[in-house]
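In response to the reviewer comment on reproducibility (Comment 2.3), we provide here a single inverse folding case reported in full, input and output, so that an independent group could reproduce the run without further information from us. The C-alpha cells appear first.
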C-alpha cells in the first residue's frame, strides 16, 4: 500500500476546489504584453440579432458599435443575458431549488429593470472619451450589466427596509415570496421568510455584480482604476442609505444632512461613478475624468432634488410611484428640511404645524398631503429647490463643456444628463391629482435616488 493510501496519515491540505462549471466563453481571458485580449464569445452580438435570439457561447461575435449606439439599453440587455445565463447555470449545479426559487428571482428582477440609465452613462462616457475598439466596448457593456445587478441589490434591499409592497407596478420581491408560501405558513412566518429571502437575493445580486466586474477583460492599469471606482461606489451607496435611514429615525430636519445623503445615494451612485467607470474603461486622461465627474456630481444632486419635488407634486401616472411617499415615510429630504427651516425663520406657525404633523405620518390623507403642498409653496421651499436645480444643471454643463470629448458621443451624453433633471412638460395642479395619488398611496415605490 502506498503511503498516500494509509487511512491513519495526517490530513493534507485539501486541493483547490474546482469551479462549479467550466468557465463560459464570456469569462475566458488571454493576456499578452500587458494588454487584455478577449475571446470572440466575450463580445456581445449585434443588437440586430434576428428575433432577439441570444448569442451562443463560443460562437463568433463582435460588437457592432453603430448598432449599440442606436439602442444602448438593448445592448446592455444582451450583455446582461450572457452574464445571467452563466450565473444561473452555476446556481443550478449547486441546487435546483436554490436556482429556481432565489437565483431565478434575481435574474427576473434584473431583466425587468427600468431605463438602464446608469449603464447608459457608462457606455456614452466611454464613447465620449474616445473608446471604440472591441475589447473596450465589450468591457463597457459588461460593466453596464454589473451596474444593473448592483441596482437590483439596492432596490430589493430598499423595498425591505422601506416596507414597500410594490416595485415597478408589481409585487416587490419580498412580497412575492411571502405570497407564494401558501397556507402552510402563518402570515407572520411567511412575511419574515419573504424578507429574509429578499436579503439573500440582494446579496446574490451583489455577488454576481462583483464577479462580473472582476472577470471583465481589462489591462492592469485600467482594471485597477475600475475596481477602485467600483469599490468606492458600493461603499458610498451603503453610507447614503444609512444616513437616509438614520434621518428617518431621528426625524432630522437638517438641510446639510439631507444634501449629504443625496450626494452619496444619488449624485455619486447614480451619475458620477457610472461616468467615471466609462472614462476609466476608455483610458481617459485626468482632466477629462475630473470634468465628467464634476458634471455628474452636479447632475446627480439636481436629479435627487427633482425626484424630491416629483414625489410630492408629480403625477403618479408619470412618475410610476405613489405621491407623498417620502412625506409619509418621514424621509429627510432637502425639500422638507428647507420648508421647515423657512417656516421657522418666518414664524409661520401654521406651516410648521402642518409639516410636523405630516412628516412620518404613514396614514396621511390626501387632504393632508394637499396641505403639505400648500405649505411647501407658501414657504418658498418649492421655488427655492427649483432654483437650486437650475443652478446645479447650469454648473454641470459648464463642467461638461470643459472636457475634451468626441463631439457626436458628447451630444448623446449631454442629452442623457439634461433629461435626468428636466422639469416634466406638464405639472398638473395638486388638487386634480389627489384622487390618483390616494389610490397609489402606500405602494412604497421609493428609492428613486437609487
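Designed residues, in position order:
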Amino acid at each position: 500500500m502506498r503511503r498516500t493510501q494509509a487511512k491513519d496519515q495526517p490530513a493534507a491540505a485539501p486541493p483547490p476546489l474546482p469551479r462549479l462549471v467550466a468557465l463560459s466563453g464570456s469569462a475566458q481571458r488571454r493576456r499578452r504584453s500587458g494588454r487584455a485580449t478577449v475571446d470572440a464569445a466575450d463580445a456581445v452580438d449585434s443588437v440586430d440579432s434576428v428575433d432577439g435570439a441570444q448569442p451562443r457561447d463560443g460562437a463568433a461575435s463582435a460588437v457592432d458599435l453603430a448598432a449599440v449606439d442606436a439602442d444602448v439599453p438593448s445592448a446592455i440587455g444582451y450583455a446582461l443575458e450572457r452574464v445571467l445565463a452563466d450565473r444561473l447555470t452555476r446556481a443550478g449545479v449547486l441546487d435546483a431549488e436554490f436556482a429556481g426559487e432565489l437565483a431565478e428571482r434575481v435574474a427576473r428582477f434584473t431583466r425587468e429593470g427600468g431605463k438602464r440609465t446608469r449603464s447608459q452613462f457608462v457606455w456614452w462616457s466611454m464613447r465620449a472619451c474616445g473608446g471604440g475598439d472591441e475589447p473596450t466596448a465589450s468591457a463597457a457593456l459588461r460593466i453596464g450589466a454589473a451596474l444593473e445587478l448592483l441596482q437590483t441589490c439596492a432596490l430589493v434591499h430598499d423595498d425591505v427596509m422601506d416596507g414597500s409592497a410594490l416595485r415597478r407596478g408589481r409585487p416587490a420581491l419580498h412580497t412575492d415570496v411571502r405570497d407564494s408560501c401558501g397556507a402552510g405558513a402563518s402570515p407572520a412566518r411567511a412575511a419574515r421568510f419573504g424578507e429574509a429571502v429578499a436579503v439573500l437575493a440582494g446579496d446574490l445580486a451583489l455577488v454576481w455584480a462583483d464577479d462580473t466586474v472582476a472577470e471583465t477583460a481589462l489591462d492592469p492599469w485600467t482594471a485597477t482604476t475600475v475596481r477602485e471606482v467600483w469599490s468606492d461606489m458600493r461603499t458610498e451607496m451603503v453610507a447614503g442609505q444609512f444616513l437616509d435611514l438614520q434621518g428617518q429615525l431621528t426625524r432630522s430636519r437638517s438641510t446639510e444632512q439631507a444634501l449629504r445623503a443625496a450626494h452619496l445615494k444619488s449624485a455619486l451612485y447614480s451619475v458620477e461613478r457610472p461616468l467615471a467607470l466609462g472614462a476609466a474603461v476608455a483610458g481617459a486622461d485626468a482632466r477629462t475624468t475630473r470634468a465628467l465627474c464634476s458634471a455628474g456630481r452636479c447632475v446627480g444632486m439636481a436629479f435627487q432634488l427633482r425626484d424630491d419635488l416629483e414625489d410630492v407634486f408629480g403625477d403618479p401616472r408619470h412618475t410610476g410611484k405613489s405621491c407623498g411617499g417620502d412625506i409619509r415615510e418621514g424621509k429627510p429630504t432637502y425639500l422638507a428640511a428647507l420648508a421647515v427651516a423657512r417656516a421657522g425663520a418666518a414664524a409661520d406657525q401654521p406651516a410648521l404645524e402642518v409639516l410636523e404633523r405630516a412628516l412620518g405620518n404613514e396614514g396621511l390623507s390626501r387632504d393632508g398631503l394637499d396641505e403639505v403642498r400648500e405649505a411647501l409653496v407658501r414657504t418658498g421651499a418649492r421655488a427655492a429647490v427649483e432654483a437650486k436645480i437650475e443652478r446645479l444643471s447650469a454648473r454641470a454643463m459648464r463642467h461638461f463643456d470643459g472636457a475634451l470629448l468626441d463631439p457626436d458621443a458628447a451630444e448623446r451624453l449631454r442629452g442623457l444628463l439634461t433629461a435626468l433633471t428636466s422639469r416634466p412638460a406638464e405639472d398638473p395642479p395638486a388638487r386634480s391629482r389627489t384622487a390618483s395619488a390616494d389610490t397609489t398611496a402606500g405602494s412604497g415605490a421609493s428609492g428613486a435616488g437609487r
